[in-house]
Amino acid sequence: MSVVEAQTAAPLLRVERLTTRFAVRRGGLGAKPAVVHAAEDVSFEVGPGEIVGLIGESGSGKSTVGRTIVRLETATSGQVLFRGENVLNFGPRDLARYRRRVQVIFQDPAASLNPRMRVEAIVAEPLIVHRIGDRRDRRDRVVQLLEDVGLKADALRRYPHEFSGGQRQRVGIARALAVGPELIVADEPVSALDVSVQAQVINLLQALSRRSGLALLFISHDLPTVEFLCDRVVVMYLGRVMEIAPAADFQRAPLHPYSRRLVADAPRFGGTLRHAAEAVAGEVPSPISPPSGCVFRARCADAIADCALTVPRLESVTQGRAVACIRRELFS
Amino acid sequence: MSDSPPVLSVRGLSTHFATARGVVRAVEDVSFEVGAGETLALVGESGSGKSVTGLSILRLLPPSGCVVGGQILFRGAGGEAIDLATAPERSLRGVRGAGVSMVFQEPMSALNPAFTIGAQIAETIRLHQKTSKPEALARAEALLAKVGISEPARRLGDYPHQLSGGMRQRAMIAMAVACQPALLIADEPTTALDVTTQAQVLRMLRALQAESGMGLLFVTHNLALVPMIADRVIVMYAGEIVETGAAGALLAAPKHPYTRALLECLPARRLPRDPTDDRPLPTIEGSVPDLAHRPTGCAFADRCRDAELDCRTLAPTLRPLGDDSRLSRCHFAERL
Questions:
Q1: Could you tell me if A85 and A12 are in contact, meaning their C-beta atoms sit under 8 angstroms apart?
Q2: Tally of CB atoms within 10 A around A206
Q3: Is there a contact between B164 and A207 if contact means CB atoms under 8 Å apart?
Q4: Tens digit of each residue's pLDDT (9 = 90 or more) over A48-104
């Protein structure tokens, strides 16, 4: 049995040893291009109707994983299986079919909505692209979708700039829902919003998931939001998965040294600033030349010499829980 | 606060903007004090006026904005108070970066990309103090070490783009505290940083403050940071202070419906999650009123679940609530 499996028997999405690297040019002309190890050997699953949180700091590769899943980036190796089929091998026709079933929403709705299109056209566009319904059906469907995300029908005739940030994100969600997807990849969907508006969008995503069995891959750097919204969490650091756990277990006791530091440093009520000795030291190393062995070892207070030798495998510790740390017995 | 007079004392500050829609009253009648060694958090959502308040203190407003009323009394090392609201531009220049410094969310917009970090910090020092170039550079190196930048001697020669986001913000803070200001205004200094870096920077700010005794005005949208950094807190809404008090007491028992609502909608307040509790997060319906056409009554009334008829007609004043240092702008604060 795999250690990264979803809580349900047949996963909707199964990411297997996914690696995505980018070539970047450094230095002057003729300099050898460097390789960014954005995502390395990433494996996890999302079950039908499940909300999985993909959490990490900048440079962790969480967005790259999300973008590779929806084929906005090209994988270097590994597999992305959607209902058993490898998405990475899809040709144009399969890809079009796939995109009816998996949709994406982005952090900045202002940048992902065409400013010259009215909301009606924005939300109807995926229906036209995928040839769903005739003109009249589409109009009814758009009104229904806007209602589902809490927008009134008068929004139809308006342009994106006439809306607040939270309303624009609702338009983005309505557009993603238009084709009736089974999975939405949401990349930091609330990070750019005011606190009071974040709560509205979180509630909406949760209600949609409960109501229609929609699965969500919720990519975020905000630990409290992930813990509140998600069923399971996948923790990434410098391109690799450090820990996978049910959200409830993770809150009670994060296991990986990086997870524990992340939890300790997240602003929390009743908490105060921890002493310097307890904090994560140093900066995230460059993904162009990640450290050998465990990528977290340079900042880990519990690192030993062996941590530099091999990349720790993601190993099961308890039911549904896996940690990539050679010293995991110390923490479980 | 200690017995010594406050470093900054803002009284009745109003800042307006001239726009095509009319006069936007971004900040209305705001008063507060920051003591030496004290941290005051200025909290609010977008459009609350928190950043404009910070910018008003150093009169760094865009051309359409203007301080139209109030006093901004700053008392520097000399002990003489100067009113920054009316002081001529010439004397303001002597205060900016020396007596009062400011750091912003995005250090890249405040650092010059064409000069090294060392040159920029040294320039700040030499602008305000008579120092030789080598001496200023030596001090810049010491400052980089103090803000937690490793290999400071080497980093002096780095350009801003060669630093990570966290290091850039540290360099920005080093430059801001180079002339030992009596007051540091930090506008969302950690918002663009990762949580582990954020914790490091907050800790470093506290250490700097403990050493120098500077006052800190910490502007943020994130209430969760308040207990980590602040002694006192001001909550702003629609350009006005709606509540102020000691940080711990205010977060534990808010006395304004807006503060209460803002706290309730944070997911962190519902953790650890109770699996049997599937209630949605409380939200604040509606939106901030148009500041070009302020409502006659309480600015929050339309979004307040406890609003009564009086709230829409009678504007509440910011009033003390008997105990401690708490002030609330709500007719019904005692009910909360």
A1: no
A2: 18
A3: no
A4: 999 999 999 888 999 999 999 999 999 999 999 999 999 999 999 999 999 999 999
Q: Which residue has the tokens 């080598």?
A: B134
Mean pLDDT score across all residues of chain A: 90
Q: What is the CA radius of gyration of chain A?
A: 21
Is there a contact between A78 and A42 (Cβ–Cβ < 8 Å)?
Answer: yes
**Chain centre distance of CA A4:** 16
Please name the residue ranges forming H helices in A135-178: 135-148, 165-177
Distance CA B142, CA B153 (A): 9
Distance from C-alpha of A133 to C-alpha of A179, rounded to nearest angstrom? 11
Q: Which residue has the tokens 């810049």?
A: B140
- Closest residue in B to A268 (Cα) is B224
List pLDDT tens digits, range A199-247. Answer: 999 999 999 999 999 999 999 999 999 999 999 999 999 999 999 999 9
Question: Which of A14, A2, A9, A19 has its CA nearest to residue A311?
Answer: A19
Q: What is the mean pLDDT of residues A33-44?
A: 93
DSSP assignments along B254-270, one per residue: --SHHHHHHHHT-GGGG
User: CA distances (Å), A99 to each of A102, A126, A169, A216, in order?
Assistant: 5, 10, 20, 15
Contact in structure between B46 and B20 (CB atoms under 8 Å): no
Please tell me the distance from the alpha carbon of residue B218 to that of residue A243, in angstroms, as a whole number: 35
Is the bond preceding A160 in cis, omega lying within 30 degrees of 0? no
φ, ψ (nearest 5 deg) of residue A94: -65, -35
Nearest CA in chain B to A272: B228
Q: Count other C-beta atoms under 10 Å from residue A165's C-beta.
A: 18
pLDDT given at position A263: 87
For the question of an ipTM over 0.90, the answer is: no
Whole-number pLDDT of residue A276: 42
What is the reported pLDDT for A270?
58
Contacts of B283 in chain A (CB under 8 A): 196-197, 199-200, 203
Question: How many interface pairs between A and B have CB atoms less than 8 angstroms apart?
Answer: 118
Nearest-angstrom CA–CA distance, B225 and B189: 11
Question: B290-325: string of b/e by CB count within 10 Å (b at 16+)?
Answer: ebeebbebbbbbbbbeebeeebeeebbebeebeeee
pLDDT band at A271 (very low <50, low <70, confident <90, very high): low
Integer-rounded Cα Rg, in Å, for chain B is: 21
Cβ–Cβ < 8 Å for A203, B280: yes
Alpha carbon distance A227, A59 (integer Å): 21
Which parts of chain A are beta strand (E)? 13-24, 34-46, 51-55, 77-82, 85-86, 102-105, 183-187, 215-220, 232-237, 240-246, 315-318, 321-323
How many angstroms away from the CA of B198 is the closest CA of chain A? 8
- Tell whether B221 lies on the interface with A, counting CB pairs under 8 A: yes
As a whole number of angstroms, the distance between CA B184 and CA B171 comes to: 15
pLDDT over 90, % of chain A: 72
CB contact under 8 A, A283 and B166: yes
Q: Nearest CA to CA, how far is A234 from chain B (Å)?
A: 17
- Is residue B111 within 8 Å of B161, Cβ to Cβ? no
Give the amino acid at A27: G
β pairing state of A215-220 and A51-55: parallel
Do the beta carbons of residue B89 and residue B61 sit within 8 Å?
no
CA of residue B106 relative to chain centroid, distance: 14
Q: Decide if B203 touches A, using CB distance below 8 A.
A: yes
